[in-house]
Design a protein that fits this description.
There is one protein chain. By secondary structure, the chain is an all-alpha fold. The chain has one domain. Helix content is 67%, strand content 2%. The protein is built from 15 helices and two strands. Helix 4 (79-93) runs antiparallel to helix 5 (99-125), helix 7 crosses helix 13 (298-317) and helix 8 (205-222) runs parallel beside helix 15. It is globular and about 55 Å long.
Length: 363
């Protein structure tokens, strides 16, 4: 909104407003705006969630025993705070004529709606059974398929159905008509991967912020022909505006972390985890860095694999590979304290983020 207002009516008259033409300036503004919104609205939103929910998020009886004692009464649906800050900041600072921005907002909002419905049913029924798996996956895959097709048709024709590989500058794998299906799996997969990871105070928030920061930089470089040519990246015109979205996600995530840090005053719930994971997946598809997201978001991948391995092996042998899945619960069962698990997982996320940034130059 600000971009259109300034570029069409103001910037020629006052030199300061020329700054709005620069994505880097607007990305910084988006990050700061989202942070301030989250911090200002945090306490009022939490108070309202506590008033509505009363008993807080239902705690799984099969989970770690201490959760029943320590986390009972903590409200959920804190993802609403993230989404308010993210959407308000993006709509304020991004170029709203850019189709990539709207495609990613579509995924974020749709996944957030699915997560909201899931959280609402859990609260109203006072158990951990939300939306049925069939309905939930149908909504997620349907949204992701639409987004994959939408994003594909905004890309340059020579890239639209290609899968790019990190560390190799010229290798592209043509997927043809299967590309929207691949995009669907990427977007829905990461939505659920972040959801699996969101099990301890602050555990998912910081890795999401790190991934958003990395993809803010990637989006800016891929959307700029000069930088893309220098770094031998596949340029996708228009994706530079996603740097504004990702920066807003960084700010919103940091603002939410203020209230979600151990001990959490609020949980993000499926409302937050599904929407943030879907957003990261959609951005990765838009900038042709799907496999790099698997590196940067490696923590989410490992958490998801731990669940898949546990279920697969238990069904066949009636034995468990891990004491409990997802992986962070395995370490809880081993006696690790929650802050130790969370901080060590954060450290892993930082290392993976640096590895993802390395793919930009090591080619």
């Amino acid at each position: 909104m600000l971009y259109s207002l300034v570029t069409h009516h103001v910037h020629g008259h006052i030199s300061f407003f020329n700054l709005f033409r620069y994505i880097t300036f607007r990305a910084g503004g988006a990050c700061l705006t989202a942070l301030v919104i989250a911090l200002v609205l945090g306490n009022p939103v939490i108070r309202e969630l506590k008033r509505i929910q009363r008993e807080g998020q239902p705690i799984r009886s099969l989970g770690p025993e201490r959760h029943i004692l320590e986390k009972a009464g903590t409200p959920t649906m804190g993802g609403i705070l993230i989404l308010i800050a993210l959407f308000a900041s993006t709509l304020l600072w991004a170029d709203l004529q850019d189709g990539f921005v709207w495609a990613v907002l579509f995924v974020t909002g749709s996944f957030g709606a699915v997560g909201f419905a899931d959280d609402y049913l859990k609260l109203s029924r006072r158990n951990t059974d939300g939306v049925s798996k069939t309905a939930r996956l149908t909504a997620e895959f349907g949204t992701s398929l639409i987004a994959g097709w939408w994003l594909q048709h905004m890309m340059p024709p020579d890239l639209s159905n290609q899968l790019a590989f990190p560390f190799v500058k010229d290798l592209l794998l043509p997927l043809g008509f299967a590309y929207p299906i691949f995009a669907m799996i990427t977007i829905a997969g990461f939505g659920n991967a972040v959801n699996f990871t969101d099990g301890l105070d602050g555990l998912a928030t910081v890795p999401v912020v790190i991934a958003a920061f990395v993809f803010a930089l990637i989006s800016y470089l891929v959307g700029n022909h000069v930088f893309a040519d220098y770094l031998q990246l596949h340029a996708v015109p228009g994706t530079g505006e996603l740097a504004v979205f990702c920066a807003a996600l960084v700010g919103a995530g940091l603002g939410f972390l203020w209230f979600n840090a151990p001990p959490a005053a609020v949980f993000m719930g499926d409302t937050g985890s599904l929407s943030l994971g879907g957003a990261l997946g959609a951005v990765a598809v838009a900038v042709k860095h799907e496999l790099v997201l698997c590196i940067v978001g490696g923590l989410f991948v490992v958490e998801t694999l731990s669940v898949i391995i546990q279920v697969f092996w238990y069904k066949r042998t009636k034995k468990r590979v891990f004491l409990m899945a997802p992986l962070h619960h395995h370490f809880e069962k081993k006696g690790w304290q929650e802050p130790k698990i969370v901080i060590r997982f954060w450290i892993v996320s930082v290392v993976l983020g640096l590895c993802g940034l390395a793919t930009l130059k090591l080619r």
